[in-house]
Write a structure and sequence with these properties.
single chain; 369 residues; alpha+beta; Rossmann fold; Dna Ligase, domain 1; D-amino Acid Aminotransferase, Chain A, domain 1; 9-stranded antiparallel beta sheet; 4-stranded parallel beta sheet; 10 helices; globular; purine biosynthesis; metal ion binding; ATP-grasp domain-containing protein; nucleotide-binding
C-alpha cells in the first residue's frame, strides 16, 4: 500500500516555471514544506519556496541532494530528461515518473502508442529526406504540417506546407534531423480532458473543456465543453485508455480535434498540469495543482463533478490597458496574473475567470474584445 504523506512533510519540486509557481502556492496552503530546485534562483517563483537549491535541473548530483532532503519529488514539466530522473528514483519516490513518459516526448512514439489503443490520430509519415516528403504528400495532401519528432522546450517551430513551393523551407528543417509530417485537420472544436491517476491505478476524469485558439495563442476556455453527450462519452473512453496505458501516478491530459462531422483525433498527450485547466478552482472548488499534490502524496481526491459552468479569458500584454478600464465594472471577474519575470513573447500574462449560469452564456462577448 502506498505511503500517505501528510502536511508538514517535504515536497521537492524540479523546475521554476508557471507550474512550479502554482505548485508552491498550493503546497504552502496545504501545509507542506517545499524545496525548489531551480536554475533561476533570482526569479520571483523561487521566493515562494521554503528552501531553494540552485543548480542544473538535470544534474544527477543535484537531484540526489534534492531527493535526500525531500519526502516526495515532482517535476513541473513533461519536457524533462528522464534519464537523470530515473537514476534518482531509487533514492526517493517520484510517482509522476513512468517508463511510458517517453511517449509524450516523441511524436512518432506517441502516435504509435495511441494507435495501439485504437485511438484516431491524424494521418502522418516519418520524413528523413526531401524524397520522403515528396512521396508522403501524395497521400497526405496539402496543406500539411511538418514538425520535429522530439518535443523539447526550445524545439524548431512547426511549419505548414501549402504547396511544393514550400519544400525549400522544409529542406532547411531536415538539416536538424528526422521530422514528422501530419495531415492538416479541418476541425470545428479543440477539446481537452485530463485524468487523475492514483497509486492504485484508479482513474478520475476532469470535465471536458473547449479551447479557443487564435494566432497560435490560447484565447479562452469554456467548461464544460459544448458538445453532445456521445462525444463526451467517447472522449472519456479515450482518456481512460490513455491514462491506463501510461502507468503513472499524477495527471494525464489528451488534447483533441473534433471535425464538423464529429470525428475525434487525439492531437497530443501531456503529463503535467495544463493551462486549459485553470477553470478547476472555480468550477470544481479545487485546482489541478492541489489534485497533483494529493495524488503524489497518496491522499484522496475531492469529487470532480463541476458545480457551475465557467469561462476563462486569457490576458495578453497588448490587452492590458483596455482590461484595466473595464475591470472595475465587473466584480464577478476573478483575475490571476503570472509573475512578471516569467512573461514570454506570445504568452499570456494572466487570465480572467467568470462563472456563468448557462452554457449559452459562453457566446457573449467580453467588452475588451
Amino acid at each position: 500500500m502506498a505511503k500517505t504523506r501528510l502536511p508538514g512533510q517535504r515536497i521537492g519540486i524540479i523546475g521554476s516555471g508557471m507550474t512550479a509557481y502554482s505548485l508552491l502556492l498550493e503546497a504552502k496552503r496545504m501545509g507542506y514544506h517545499s524545496i525548489l530546485l531551480t536554475d533561476k534562483p533570482d526569479q520571483q517563483v523561487a521566493k515562494l519556496a521554503d528552501q531553494v537549491m540552485a543548480g542544473s535541473l538535470m544534474e544527477t548530483e543535484k537531484l540526489i541532494d534534492l531527493a535526500n532532503q525531500s519526502d516526495v519529488l515532482v517535476f513541473e514539466s513533461d519536457q524533462v530528461d528522464t534519464e537523470p530522473l530515473a537514476s534518482v528514483k531509487g533514492y526517493l519516490p517520484m510517482p509522476q515518473l513512468s517508463d511510458m513518459l517517453s511517449i509524450t516526448q516523441d511524436r512518432l512514439i506517441e502516435k504509435v502508442f495511441l494507435e495501439s489503443l485504437n485511438i484516431n490520430v491524424t494521418p502522418y509519415a516519418t520524413i528523413t529526406s526531401l524524397e520522403d516528403l515528396q512521396e508522403a504528400v501524395k497521400s497526405i495532401g496539402f496543406p500539411c504540417v511538418l514538425k520535429a519528432i522530439r518535443v523539447e522546450a526550445n524545439q524548431i517551430p512547426n511549419m505548414v506546407l501549402y504547396s511544393e513551393e514550400d519544400f525549400y523551407h522544409a529542406e532547411r528543417m531536415l538539416k536538424t534531423g528526422s521530422l514528422l509530417l501530419e495531415s492538416w485537420v479541418a476541425f470545428d472544436k479543440e477539446l481537452t480532458m485530463t485524468a487523475a491517476v492514483d497509486a492504485d491505478g484508479q482513474v478520475s476524469l476532469f470535465p471536458l473543456v473547449e479551447k479557443v485558439v487564435g494566432d497560435g495563442k490560447l484565447l479562452a476556455v469554456h467548461a464544460p465543453a459544448r458538445v453532445s453527450n456521445d462525444v463526451n462519452q467517447a472522449v472519456q473512453m479515450m482518456a481512460h485508455a490513455v491514462a491506463g496505458g501510461m502507468a503513472l501516478v499524477g495527471l494525464v491530459t489528451i488534447e483533441l480535434f473534433m471535425t464538423p462531422s464529429g470525428m475525434l483525433y487525439v492531437k497530443r498527450v501531456g503529463v503535467n498540469p495544463q493551462e486549459a485547466n485553470h477553470f478547476l478552482s472555480e468550477s470544481c472548488a479545487f485546482s489541478q495543482y492541489e489534485a497533483l499534490i494529493r495524488l503524489v502524496c497518496h491522499l484522496p481526491l475531492p469529487e470532480l463533478t463541476p458545480q457551475r459552468a465557467v469561462t476563462i479569458r486569457y490576458l495578453y500584454r497588448e490587452q492590458l490597458d483596455v482590461f484595466k478600464e473595464h475591470f472595475p465594472l465587473h466584480p464577478e471577474w476573478k483575475v490571476t496574473f503570472y509573475p512578471s519575470d516569467n512573461e514570454k513573447a506570445n504568452k499570456a500574462i494572466g487570465y480572467v475567470v467568470a462563472q456563468v449560469d448557462h452554457i449559452e452564456d459562453f457566446d457573449r462577448k467580453w467588452e475588451w474584445e
